[in-house]
């Protein structure tokens, strides 16, 4: 795909290609973690960023040598 065509579409990073019904569809790959940074910042501000498990749960295997 020529670079000028990609630049016209705004696709500058990774793409996903799909083929179907006599078409080739090229679309930008969505950032799955988009918005995470803002969400974590809000969580920290309201004190909702405490780990779910904050201590190690002991198990008999921990005492045995492998």
Compute the number of strand runs: 2
Structural class estimated from helices and strands: alpha+beta
State the end-to-end CA separation.
55 Å
State the assembly state of the protein chains: single chain
Low-confidence region ranges: none
**Overall spatial form:** elongated
The profile of the biggest β sheet is: 2 strands, antiparallel
Produce the secondary structure layout.
Elements: H1 3-9, E1 15-20, E2 23-28, H2 36-45
Antiparallel strand pairs: 1-2
3D structure, described in words:
With 66 residues, the chain is an alpha+beta fold. The protein has one domain (3-54). Helix content is 26%, strand content 18%. It contains 2 helices and 2 strands. It has helices at residues 3-9, 36-45, and strands at residues 15-20, 23-28. A hairpin with a 2-residue loop joins strand 1 and strand 2 (23-28). The longest helix is centred in the middle third of the chain and has 10 residues, at 36-45. The model has no long low-confidence stretch (mean pLDDT 83).
In short:
This protein is an alpha+beta fold and 66 residues long. The protein has helices at residues 3-9, 36-45, and strands at residues 15-20, 23-28. It has one domain (3-54).
């Amino acid at each position: 795909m020529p670079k000028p065509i990609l630049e016209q579409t705004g696709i500058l990073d990774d793409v996903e290609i799909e083929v179907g019904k006599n078409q080739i569809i090229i679309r930008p790959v969505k950032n799955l973690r988009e918005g995470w940074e803002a969400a974590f910042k809000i969580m920290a501000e309201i004190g909702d960023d405490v780990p779910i498990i904050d201590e190690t749960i002991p198990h008999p295997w921990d005492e045995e040598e492998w």
